[in-house]
Amino acid sequence: MNLSRDIKVGLALLLGLNLMTAFSSISVLERMEPAIETVIKENVRSLEMVEEMFSALFLPAQPARDTAANKQRFTAALKQARESATEEQEPVIIAAIESAAEQAFGGNAVAIKSVVENLQRLGEVNRNAMRRAEERANRLRLAGAWAMAMLGLMTFLSGLFVFSRFGKRIVYPVQELVGVATAWKEGNRQRRYHSPAASRELEEIGKVLNAVLDESMDKQFEERRELPQHRAAGAKEREIISGLLESFSAPSFVISSAGVLLSANAEGIKRLSRQDGAEIREQLALAPKRQAQKSVSKSAPIGNTGFWLCELKPEVERV
């Protein structure tokens, strides 16, 4: 997968999960609102009508017109209770109230008792319906909360996956490229780019960088092996340099101005073959830059040849 597709897929996944979370939250709220609205509009209205009928039935009425007004209020409340009925039992109870209402207003004790009992039943039916509606709303709210939690967990895990993949395919390869370039600048000529999990584009950049570094190393190796006359001293000077190296008892080396190791005496070759040989090579490469190194005791240019003579500290002294 290429770099742009990696980034697009990761961002699309995270944005998609965030949108799912948002729309799921809206859906849960939309499903809860009708349930609550139904409780308020239907069952609460029925309870209000029950209270209104109780008031109309038992409100003291001395003049005949007051009794007629109470009966009118009772009838209107009964009609509204019938219109707002939502439970199966309500029509039967309302019919029983209606059949006994006329006698109840006439003072019939049996009819009054029947109306009161049925009004109580009507109120109880609506209160039970409200409790059930509340339970449904609570279950829906709990299910919605768990759904949001699961979507949040999915978003979190997806984020971890995306960032991990982004790190392996983009961040770490870029750090590796910077590390190789920095190592080359500091004199480490052996380090090469290697990041098998990198995206295709970064992998191509790494291959090109490795090819450039190998080509530069080949050129430096040829220069070190042949010591061409147009850049270095002639045959006589090379003999003098070789003899000069062998005249030193300490490990000694000839370094080009670019930091390339050109020659070494026997002690120097022996030192390079030991475990810290790579570290010594890096320190010798920095000698022409006049940077102090813990293993190098002396470093000085050899006339105008462009070469540097470096000598290592005795091992006891360096320890």
Question: What keyword list fits this structure?
Answer:
2 domains, Four Helix Bundle (Hemerythrin (Met), subunit A), alpha+beta, 319 residues, Beta-Lactamase, four-stranded antiparallel beta sheet, 4 strands
Give a verbal description of the structure.
The protein is an alpha+beta fold. The protein folds into two domains: 3-161, Four Helix Bundle (Hemerythrin (Met), subunit A), CATH 1.20.120; 230-318, Beta-Lactamase (2-Layer Sandwich), CATH 3.30.450. Helix content is 71%, strand content 7%. It has nine helices and four strands, in the order H-H-H-H-H-H-E-E-H-H-E-E-H. Strands 2-1-4-3 form a four-stranded antiparallel sheet, sandwiched between helices. Helix 3 packs antiparallel against helix 4 (109-185) and helix 4 packs parallel to helix 5 (200-226). The longest helix has 77 residues, at 109-185. Residues 226-233 have low confidence and may be disordered.
CATH topology of the largest domain: Four Helix Bundle (Hemerythrin (Met), subunit A)
In total, the number of strands is 4
Strand proportion: 5-15%
Mean pLDDT: 78
Q: Can you give the helix content as a percent range?
A: over 70%
The largest sheet is: 4 strands, antiparallel
Rg: 48 Å
CATH class group of the largest domain: Mainly Alpha
Distance between the termini: 51 Å
Total helix count?
Answer: 9
Succession of helices and strands: HHHHHHEEHHEEH
